[in-house]
Design brief:
490 residues; alpha/beta; Aspartate Aminotransferase, domain 1; Aspartate Aminotransferase, domain 2; 3 domains; 7-stranded mixed beta sheet; 5-stranded antiparallel beta sheet; 15 helices; 18 strands; globular; disordered C terminus
């Protein structure tokens, strides 16, 4: 009996090993797969069970119903859920997965560092990864000035808040100018900076000395203004703050996104940025570029601020996070040395800031992105996607605007192309329909009517074409439902 039991156990172990090998092989194949829903609907039974457990264990604020997905594994721009459905991801962890899921070089870097040590606190003792990464970002970041310095935090909100700390320390001023549509995080200060107060409901009071100017949203410029007239209008509104909000001499910094994310995927016009740079220079105000979402090769440059620098309008400080470490928690604050050295001892840093494992991941990400020219990948994907969306716009006039910088694209839906009334309900239906077909989408904008395109930059052309097909089908189905939007073009 003992021999039979031993043989049975050995056979089972061999079968389990073979299954594991098969799964590893299929994970590699997943990178080139196409969307495929094998359950009757999403969520399938296993996902439904896990979602029910989530709802019982996790606060309601984190338990939405828009995305009933439970991930099992991911590779490239694709992931598989616990029921075996495969999805094409056009959300990318909201801009975290520019390098894609589970890149082997990043996985290897994390494994090697984890075998050495998981943690140091950099304020107490130094580790090589932190210093090497800071050196590389100092060489890479398109900030104003010659010599740069960088330090690290854990998230986008943290790096934005730290950038403002630095600006206040350097200028000895307390005022901050932010913009309509902005999203800078969920800490107390960054909730105050974030425009959409859904993210701050019941969380006040907030810090004082924050002033908001209109962001240049050219598609929705007032009174049908052309670009030049609209930019003049937005600059006049910015300057109004100095008369009605606070004198320029009391403003430490302006913080803005080169390509606004949550506000609707809106690019800042270069002519406006150049004028803002002049205003800052004339008044001793620091300009902070929030590249948490648009950095790390997303916009056709390593950082979108490179476009600013080429136009002679480089920011003083750049913040970045999300895709910097391929999914590991890390963010960076970079500026010229004299600005960064203004922070008094003890006011910056933290227990996990610049964690060794996260720094190892970021060094691998940077190496891969440079070697494989991910900025060009973004431009290639962006061009193909823009062409596809514009083709759909000719067929469906509810696509009011398609705006792009590299591989970062906003597709704005409207109920009427003349009035430009936002079609948030249509966007929600489109997202729900696409999910059932294996395409993950997300909306943004104050009315939730803009679809944000943030696909991993390792997506294949075939996957992109499949996604565009699903997008069109899902939009067609949404328009066929009883919604107060224009029907498709005949």
């Amino acid at each position: 009996m003992a021999d039979i039991k031993t043989r049975t156990t050995t056979k089972r172990k061999r079968q389990d090993t073979e299954t594991e090998v098969y799964l590893m092989m299929s994970t590699a194949e997943l990178a080139n797969a196409l969307p495929n829903i094998v359950t009757a609907s999403v969520p399938g039974p296993k996902a439904k069970e896990l979602i029910d457990r989530r709802d019982a264990a996790v606060p309601k604020a984190l338990c939405g119903s828009t995305y009933p997905i439970c991930m099992k594994r991911g590779s490239g721009a694709m992931f598989e859920d616990v029921d075996g459905n495969t999805f094409l991801d056009w959300v990318g962890g909201v801009g975290v997965l520019n390098i894609g899921y589970s890149h082997p070089k990043v996985v290897k870097a994390v494994q090697e560092q984890a075998e050495k040590y998981f943690h140091t606190i950099f304020n107490v003792y130094v580790h090589e990864g932190y210093v090497s990464l800071a050196e590389k970002l100092n060489d890479r970041m398109p900030c104003k000035g010659e010599k740069m310095k960088t330090y690290f935090a854990n998230s986008g909100a943290e790096c934005d808040e730290n950038a403002i700390k630095i600006a206040k320390a350097y200028t000895k001023r307390g005022g901050v100018i932010c913009f309509t549509g902005a999203f800078h995080g969920r800490t107390n200060l960054t909730m105050a900076l974030t425009a959409k107060k859904t993210y701050a409901q019941g969380m006040g009071p907030f810090p004082s000395g924050i002033f908001r100017a209109p962001y240049p949203y050219l598609y929705r410029a007032p009174k049908g203004m052309g670009e030049e007239e609209a930019i003049s209008y937005y600059l006049e509104e910015l300057n109004r703050i100095f008369d009605e909000g606070a004198p320029a001499s009391e403003i430490a910094c302006m913080i803005l996104e080169p390509f606004q994310g949550e506000g609707g995927f809106i690019p800042a016009p270069i002519a406006w940025v150049k004028a803002v740079r002049r205003i800052c220079d004339e008044n001793g105000i620091l300009l902070i570029a929030d590249e948490v979402q648009c950095g790390n090769c997303r916009t056709g440059r390593y950082f979108a601020s490179e476009y600013w620098k080429e136009a002679g309008a480089a920011p003083d400080i750049i913040t970045t996070a999300k895709s910097i470490a391929g999914g590991m928690p890390l963010s960076a604050i970079t500026g010229r040395a004299e600005v960064m050295d203004a922070a008094p001892a003890g006011t910056i840093g933290g227990t996990y800031c610049g964690n060794p494992v996260s720094c190892a991941a970021a060094l691998a990400v940077l190496e891969v992105m440079e070697e494989e020219d991910f900025a060009s990948k973004a431009e290639h994907i962006g061009q193909l996607a823009e062409k596809g969306f514009c083709k759909l716009a000719k067929k469906y006039p509810v696509i009011g605007d398609v705006r792009r910088l590299g591989g970062m694209i906003g597709v704005e839906l409207v109920s009427d192309p003349k009035t430009k009334a936002p079609a948030g309900d249509l966007a929600a239906k489109l997202i729900a329909n696409a999910l059932q077909k294996g395409l993950l989408l997300e909306s943004c904008g104050s009315a939730g009517n803009t679809i944000r395109f943030l696909a991993p930059l390792v997506m294949t052309d075939e996957q992109l074409e499949s996604g565009l097909t699903i997008f069109g089908e899902a939009l067609e189905e949404a328009l066929a439902e009883d919604l107060p939007v224009a029907s498709k073009a005949s």
